[in-house]
Each structure stands twice: as structure tokens, then as C-alpha cells.
Amino acid sequence: MPNQVRLLLLQLQGVLLHCPTSLVDANYRFLWCDIGGAGHMSDAQIFNGSELKEAMDNRTIGFPQKIHCLYDDEDTPYFLLADDAFALRTNLMKPYSTRGMTRSQAMYNYRISRGRRVVRNAFGIMANRFRAFLGRMQQSPEVVQLIVKCYVILHNMMRRRYPGEQP
Q1: If residue 17 lies in a helix (H) or strand (E), which one and from where to where?
Q2: Average pLDDT across the chain, whole number
Q3: What is the pTM of this model?
Q4: Which bin fits 105, alpha (ψ -120 to 50), beta or left (φ > 0)?
Q5: N or C: which end of the chain has fewer CB within 10 A?
Q6: pLDDT, tens only, 119-130
Q7: Where are the chain's structural domains?
Q8: What is the 3-state secondary structure (H, E, C) of 117-134?
Q9: Do residues 137 and 24 lie in contact, with contact meaning Cβ atoms separated by under 8 Å?
Q10: How far apart are CA 22 and CA 149, in angstroms?
Q11: What share of the chain is helix, strand, coil (3-state, %, to 5)?
């Protein structure tokens, strides 16, 4: 599955729903998730119609202030990690094209990939906890959207309330 980094595919009666634009923190908690885009739409199409893009354009997303990093003389802003399907934006980092990369660009791509892996792992943790995602779901698309929303909320609640008991 090529877009496994950000996709949660739900198979139901020939329809694919996915959760393409998800923000996940370092503790595998979902900060924002857009559920229910049609399976035939590209990631960029879904992102361009999302509330997240609108909030980024209007600068109402609420990014924290820049922070000072150790061994750096400039403050570092917060940003989102994405794959190459997205357009480059001020607070969005994406990998370099794979053609003619230098060693430092390849290292940058590797580090971006490691950061994006947190999203895939969050979906994996949620799928293993709520086994409904591992098989074919027989409900209607509207019901599946509600199920996914409930599982995201329950997943986050369990990660906050029982941090020591989480995988």
C-alpha cells in the first residue's frame, strides 16, 4: 500500500473511505482527523477542501510560538510533515523529489519519513486496539464514519488516561 503513511483504508461494499489528513502528536494522539473522503479523490484534493488547509491559510490553526532548540542560534517554528502529494507551504515540510538527490537531501527525506511514521503507527495502534479495522466493515459509509470518529476519540482518551498501559 503506497500511501500507508497517512491512509486508513476501510473496505466496505466496494467503497474506500480514508482519513488522509491527520495530525498526530509524538504520543500517538490524534490532534485532527478528516474522515470520509471518497476513495477516488487524491490526497491533495481532499486536503485542498479541508478545514485544516483553510486554518493554515487564515493563520488560525494555532501553532505554538517558535521554540529555541539546543545547539541552534535561531528559533524553530512548528510545522507539519507531509508526503510529496502536497504543495510546499510555510508550515508544511515534504520530502525532496527522488531524482538526483544529494546525500544530505536523502538524509532529510529519511528523517521526514521517520516523522511521518508516527501517523502510520498511531493508526496501527488504533487498529490493533479496535479490531474492527482489521477486516471488512459491512456498515454503510455514514455509519463507518461515525465508528471511526468514536474510535479516534476513545483511542485519544485511553492514551491520555492510561499512558503507562499503552503499547
Answers
A1: strand 15-18
A2: 77
A3: 0.74
A4: alpha
A5: N
A6: 888 888 888 888
A7: 10-165
A8: HHHHHHHHHHHHHCHHHH
A9: no
A10: 12
A11: 40, 15, 45
